[in-house]
Design a protein that fits this description.
This protein has about 450 residues and is mainly alpha-helical. The chain has helices at about 5-15, 20-30, 30-35, 45-50, 55-65, 65-75, 80-90, 90-100, 105-110, 115-125, 130-135, 150-160, 185-190, 200, 215-225, 245-265, 280-305, 305-310, 315-320, 320-345, 350-380, 390-415, 425-445, and strands spanning about 140-145, 170, 180-185, 210, 230-235, 240-245. α8 (about 90-100) packs across α10 and α20 (about 320-345) runs parallel beside α22 (about 390-415).
């Protein structure tokens, strides 16, 4: 019956108070599937259904609700019941959710949450947004280096359900300093020697991140070493928590979305596109459009300075879109490649000289190719074959300028501590538009008066 259940039937169960069928509904399916069936319910109806689930199942189903519904439940339902649910959630998940809830609601909920969980929430909320500490979980498999294999397995069997992951067992000293890591596979393999201590089994060459490290750097480290989880420590290397692969995926998705928005000259959205108010969307898009608008005005001003030349040699006007687009497109290509490479950790600021040389060579190759095509077109429209050389020379210089600007500017922003994605494609294109006009007219004035 569950597999063919529709919202009217679920609402009918609620109206009739059919406790047995509602309990079956909450437990018969995977929590993710159960949450899917509840998508059409209001926050109040969804919360009523969750009351028929065991606390552990309730928390799992709740985690699969959309963030908006989760937030509405926390803000509208009974505070004590909601506080109990929050206490059952994974530390990182509950902190992320509370960050989205109105602060006065959080202040009402915190006193109702058990002391240990409340202290953990306050500690995690203290880390700045975007740092490793803000996305870590404190539910970590952490064991003393003095424990034996048998003792570790005994503890693990009792605590496994409450831990985020047990793929890696982190070994610490008496002061909680991280000493190393033991995989579950190593522990099982060591079963024939139950009295072997973890200090003899531990791998001390463990990759860790500082709680204040940028979350984007953390994702790069996890990807580089192909880890399922990474420990988070403080300056004294005291073990604070871990960041698991699912959190890394969330961070990567968030960072990729943010970079995509900025590359398109849009201030990153705080919510889904359809849920973002039109005024907010207009502000986030309009700010950059204004900047680009004034950049375009500078292009018009630059053209105005050469009005006499363009009136005298009218065929030059026909190639202005070609020159501008060639420079802007090559610059945008370079900017996208460099921003992506920086985000993925494929290049660093130390590689700036190699990047510049590669983009200079790329500008020569691409510019040379476009120049051949451009000259073939210019010969047809120009007054003489000599005047037509203005086009290939300009294209060569503009494309080189585009590739160099598109590669250097993101590196410069990175060096200044800014997000390289701020040097978006439209922004680079706007700069190259102005530079392209100046190069074009300079070459034209230098060559055309020499004719005859």
């Amino acid at each position: 019956m569950i597999n063919t259940l529709y919202l009217p039937e679920l609402r009918e169960m609620l109206s009739e108070g059919n406790e047995e069928e509602l309990r079956e509904f909450c437990t018969a399916l995977n929590p993710a599937r159960t949450a899917e069936f509840m998508e059409g319910l209001s926050a109040s109806e969804a919360w009523r259904v969750l009351q028929f689930a065991d606390p552990s199942v309730r928390e799992q189903i709740f985690n699969f609700f959309e963030e908006e519904k989760q937030r509405e439940i926390l803000e509208t339902q009974d505070r004590s019941q909601v506080a109990s649910l929050v206490a059952d959630m994974a530390p990182d998940d509950r902190v992320d959710l509370l960050q989205e809830v109105d602060e006065h609601i959080v202040e009402e909920l915190l006193p109702l949450i058990p002391f240990e969980e409340r202290r953990d929430i306050l500690r995690l909320r203290a880390y700045p947004e975007g740092t490793a500490g803000a996305v870590m979980t404190t539910e970590v498999a952490k064991f003393s280096e003095n424990l034996t294999v048998k003792e570790t397995l005994d503890v693990l069997s009792r605590e496994a359900e409450e831990l985020e992951t047990i793929y890696y067992l982190y070994v610490v000293d008496d002061s909680d300093h991280l000493r190393g890591v033991v995989s579950t596979r190593q522990l099982v393999t060591a079963l024939p020697r139950p009295d072997l201590r973890l200090s003899e089994l531990v791998e001390t060459d463990v990759v860790a991140v500082n709680a204040m490290d940028d979350q984007e750097e953390v994702t790069q480290t996890v990807a580089r070493y192909d880890l399922l989880a990474i420990p988070v420590v403080d300056k004294e290397r005291v073990m604070l928590g871990i960041i698991t692969h699912d959190d890394v995926i969330d961070v990567m998705r968030e960072e990729a979305t943010e970079d995509a928005h900025r590359i398109a000259a849009v201030e990153p959205l705080d919510d889904d596109y359809l849920k973002t108010p039109l005024l907010t969307l207009s502000r986030k898009r309009g700010m950059w459009l204004m900047i680009l608008f004034f950049a375009a005005l500078l292009t018009a001003i630059a053209l105005d300075q050469y009005e006499a030349t363009l009136k005298r040699v009218t065929w030059l006007v026909l190639f202005i879109p070609l020159v501008i687009s060639s420079g802007g497109n090559s610059g945008s290509q370079s900017a996208t490649l460099i921003i992506t490479a920086l985000a993925m950790g494929h290049i660093t600021l130390k590689d700036w000289s190699r990047v510049v040389i590669r983009e200079l060579l790329m500008g020569l190759v691409l510019g040379g190719f476009l120049s051949i095509i451009g000259y073939a077109c210019a010969v047809i429209l120009a007054d003489t074959a000599y005047q037509a050389l203005v086009i290939p020379i300009t294209l060569m210089l503009v494309v080189i300028c585009g590739t160099l600007c598109g590669s250097i500017l993101p590196l410069l922003f990175q060096r200044l501590g800014l997000d390289p994605a701020l040097m978006s494609n439209p922004f680079v294109a706007g700069i190259i538009d102005i530079a392209g006009i100046l190069i074009y007219m300079t070459v034209a004035l230098a060559m055309i008066p020499m004719e005859g």
